[in-house]
Amino acid sequence: MDNDVKYKASLASAAEDLFIEIFCDAFGPEKTKYLFIQYPFVDIYGNRRFIDFALENEEMRIAIEIDGDKFHNPQRVSANKYYDDILKQNSLIFNNWKVYRWAYNQLKNQREKVRDELVTFVGEMSIFRLLDDYLPKQKGKIIELKSHQHSALESLQKMRDSGESIALLYHATGAGKTVTAVSDARNYGKRTLFLAHTRELVSQAKDTFEEIWPEISAGMYVAEQKEKDAYVVCGSVQSVAQNLNQFKSDDFGYIVIVLQRKLY
């Protein structure tokens, strides 16, 4: 197993570590790039939860749950915890996820059988998507914030003037990337879509748009709150991805995507 896979596994529980090893046996270490670890979703009551491992393509979404004995064994956890696990699974199924579960003891004692089942259930790994597949294929460059946000805004404008249409803005947490993105969207002036993985980030972005660009309408598109007709739509990646038929390809002239760091 290569170093990247070892690094990924070190961030999980012992049960999830073992699953990654079996996954590598089944599909090869290079296929771990398709796995989303701790993938966020919202249950039927609007509560934010996480899937142990997720795989996606155009036609299906697969959730893989690894049940450690300490936290999922019905004989060792409280009734409320057990019922909550059932609710999580039912919410995934309700939202058209295929759900597959293995217990830790199965991974330890029936490794080859789990591997064969995994191949049967998941199928061809080449059909699944990477996070990069959600991004438009356009020319561009990476911009790093230097002394202040004005330099980033100037660089973004120079890129547009030279015909480039996509940029990656990166800096430490708390350095004001959202403010920079909102300011640039205002400068550009076109209808905007802001995407993030958490409701908190989406809500913060909406507040920032309303503060910096008060003359336009800003709406939320997350869970049950879907204000798709606002001039600026601040949405969660999962909510928008699940409702792409509600949007046209040319609805937005400016798109901001806040990326989570992938663990590989």
From TrEMBL:
A single Gene Ontology CC annotation of this entry is: cytosol
Kindly indicate where the leader peptide sits in this chain. Answer: none
Record protein name field: Putative DNA repair helicase RadD
- Top enzyme class, one word, equals hydrolase
UniProt keyword annotations, A-Z = ATP-binding, Helicase, Hydrolase, Nucleotide-binding
Keyword ATP-binding assigned to the entry: answer is: yes
Indicate the segments forming the Helicase ATP-binding domain, all copies. 158-264
Q: Which organism is it from?
A: Pelotomaculum propionicicum
- A family per Pfam: ResIII
Which molecular function terms from Gene Ontology are attached? ATP binding; DNA binding; DNA helicase activity; hydrolase activity
Which Enzyme Commission number(s) are listed? Answer: 3.6.4.12
Which InterPro entries does this one have? Helicase/UvrB_N, Helicase_ATP-bd, Helicase_Restrict-Modif_Enz, P-loop_NTPase
The gene it comes from is: radD_1
